[in-house]
Each structure stands twice: as C-alpha cells, then as structure tokens.
Amino acid sequence: MKILYVTTIGGMMGFFESLIEKLISDGDIIDIATNEIGSPVPEFYREHGCRIYHIDSSRSPFNIGNIKAIRQIQRLVENNSYDIVHCHSPLASASTRIACKRLRKKGKVRVIYTAHGFHFYKGAPLKNWLLFYPIEKLCSYYTDDLIVINKEDYELARNKMKAKRVEYVPGVGIDVAKFAGTVVDRKAKRKELDIPEDAFMLLSVGELNENKNHRVVVEALSLLKDSGIHYVIAGTGVEKDNLQKLAVKLGVNLHLLGFRNDIAELDKVADCFILPSIREGLNVSIMEAMACGKPVICSRIRGNIDIVDENGGGLFSSSSVEECVEVLKKMLECNRKQLGEYNARKATKFSFEKINGQMKVVYQNQLER
Fold first, then answer.
1. Same domain assignment for residues 164 and 89
2. pLDDT reported for residue 369
3. Which one-letter DSSP state was computed for residue 259?
4. Closest CA to 123 of 326, 314, 319, 325
5. In what order do the strands lie in the sheet with 166-168?
6. Residue 141's CATH number
7. Is residue 67 domain-shared with residue 192, that is, in the same domain?
8. If DSSP states are collapsed to H, E and C, what string results for 50-115?
9. Residue 348: is it exposed, middle or buried by C-beta count within 10 angstroms (0-12/13-18/19+)?
10. In this structure, are 102 and 217 located in the same domain?
11. Are 239 and 357 within one domain?
12. Domain shared by 6 and 146, yes or no
C-alpha cells in the first residue's frame, strides 16, 4: 500500500510511530503532509524513509492556510498516486477531504479520517456545534472510512455522518509491555521527586490548561485537609502559575514537574492516577497508568467512561469539587492493589499489537472494496 498521512501539525505524528513502523516492515510506503513550523515531525519518520511534505495547515479555523492546504494536498495526491489518504485532526482533515473529492469520485484514492474526539459532544459549548458540526457533516460525504475512538462519537457518527463506513477503534494504542514491565526503586524515585515515602501520591499527566481542569483536584484536596496527600502533575502549560498560587493559598502539596520522559516510572511510584478533564477523546495517560497496575479516578465524560469503571477506580463530575472529594475519600480507604490489578488486565485491550492489527484490517478492507 502507498499511504499519505495528513495532520495539521507535525508533532501529532508522534502518536503513530508504532503503527507506521509495522506498516513499513510489511512493505507499505508512508508519506506525510503536515505543517512542521513550531511542531516538527519526529525524526523517526525520516530515519524510516518517509517523505515529508509541507502544507500550510493551521490549528485556527480562521487561518487562510487551511484553504491553501486544499490545493497543496490535491497536487500531492495527483502526483504520487496514493492508494489511501489517512487524515487526522479536524482542520487538516477537512482540507484533505475537499482536496480528494474529485479523485475519490473517480475511484483513484480512498480517504480515511480518524476523529480523535469530535469538538461537538454532549455538553459542548454551542459555538463548537455551530462551527465544527456543519464542517464534519459536509466532509463526511467525502469519506470512505470514518474512524472514531470512543463510543459516544461512534453513536453520533453512525446516526449523523454520511461516511461510507464508520468504525470504532479505541485510540492509537499503548506499549503495554513497557509500562507493565517498568521496574523502579520507589524510595529513590520519591526522594528525587521530594515526595515522602509514606505519602499518598496522586498523579496526573497532561498539559496545564483549563480543559485538563487540575484546579478541581487542588480545591478538592483543600477540603480533605490531609497533609499526607501530594498531588503531582507531569506537564507544561499556561495554567502553571495559577495552579501554584492556588495550591499555596489553599495549603495543598502540589508538585509541578514540567515535561517528563519518565511517565512509566512516575506511574509506578504513584498510589493513584487522576484525570479531571472537561473534554477528552480517549486519553492515553489513563491507559498507561492502568497498564502499570494503578487505580484511576477520572471525570465522568466521553472516552473516560469507556476505559474506567468502579472496579478499577472512580468517576466524578468534572465540575463538582464535592464529588471529587468523595471519590478521593473512597480511594484512600479501599484496596488499591485489587483495583490496580483489575486495570492492568483491562489495559491489554489497548495494546499496540491489538490496535495496529485493527488498523491494518481497515486499510486492507478499503483496498478490497
């Protein structure tokens, strides 16, 4: 197969390394069209012989670069005779599907779109529905296979979108063996992090922004008034100063670690993982924590509810500090080892091997139609 991957920004290609490595090892040819300005494609792809083409795509729906990208993608597909164009991220995917409309109609290319969480969802702001829903609806007519990564989006896509085929593939996969097999000296690691060995370490992984909603956890911990709890967040973002100030004001033990390359080790020395997000597609960090055998507390939202249940942790409303307090109380008192073992078994469903296998079948089915 000859496949063109299209993303708005180059950095997004970091999620697909395992799948593309398998495709290349099977003899498939992979090229990439994206915007690397400020967000380069991982060097992995150049090392594996992928050709990378620039397009003027942008994260802003009002940037004229998304219009320019239509013609750029059109020329690429015309000149390179791809069997499949697989697009990701809403704006680059809209440009791609419009660009491929004529060639697709002639049967010269198949177009696959993976929606990594629609921007319109139950409880989403009205502006999201007004802006993104009409675009997705229109472009679905020009889509051979629409892949969604959570069950809420799957139901919406089946009922509202017009793609020839709608499929549910739960995310991009995780390296289960790596996370499950990580060994770390708990005492030494906690000393490095300045976390007391006997403390209850609550871990989050993700960007420090409003959507990740770390504030609700800080506020919940202030109500618990338990000085033995330390909240650790791995990630960077614009909310860093605000979170630090809030934690100091409320007397909460907060550790902001910034960007980290040792997530598996952090998961292993934590007592519980927490994700309080307002919106997610299907969160990878939850799966990684589960693979490490950790209980998980998370917001009761699309995607999260596909992964986490009461047998492996707890759920709460992303807007309710009180509910967060209640699930934290239960976590302090329950058998966390049992919850973690349940999660470790469940995490095997999201392994690279299983997800990559599903994607290979998707591609092969498209070529056979």
1. yes
2. 72
3. S
4. 319
5. 51-54, 29-35, 2-9, 84-88, 110-115, 145-148, 166-168
6. 3.40.50.2000
7. no
8. CEEEECCCCCCCCCCHHHHHHHHHHHHHHHHCCCEEEEECHHHHHHHHHHCHHHHHCCCCEEEEEE
9. middle
10. no
11. no
12. yes
Please enumerate in sequence order all residues whose Cβ is within 8 A of that of 236, keeping only pairs 6 or more positions apart, or say none.
207, 208, 258, 259
Question: Measured in whole angstroms, how far is the alpha carbon of residue 136 from the centre of its chain?
Answer: 19
Residues 189 and 326 in one domain: yes
Does one domain contain both 242 and 282?
yes
| DSSP conformational letter for 42 | P
Do residue 127 and residue 226 come from a single domain?
A: no
Residues 115, 147: Cα–Cα separation, whole Å: 6
Token digits for 47? 């090392």
pLDDT in tens, the chain (369 residues): 999 999 999 999 999 999 999 999 999 999 999 999 999 999 999 999 999 999 999 999 889 999 999 999 999 999 999 999 999 999 999 999 999 999 999 999 999 999 999 999 988 999 999 999 999 999 999 999 999 999 999 999 999 999 999 999 999 999 999 999 999 999 999 999 999 999 999 999 999 999 999 999 999 999 999 999 999 999 999 999 999 999 999 999 999 999 999 999 999 999 999 999 999 999 999 999 999 999 999 999 999 999 999 999 999 999 999 999 999 999 999 999 999 999 999 999 999 999 999 999 999 999 887
Calpha distance 21→175 (Å, rounded): 14
Between CA 205 and CA 207 the distance in angstroms is 7
Tokens of 191: 């000393």
- In the chain, the number of structural domains is 2
Separation in Å, CA 250 to CA 148, 222, 227, 316: 40, 6, 12, 21
What six digits make up the tokens of 21?
A: 């490595």
Name the residue range of residue 129's domain. Answer: 2-173+351-368
| Cα(354)–Cα(135) distance, integer angstroms | 31
Query: What is the rounded distance in angstroms from the CA atom of residue 146 to the CA atom of residue 17?
Result: 21
Output the pLDDT for position 133. 96
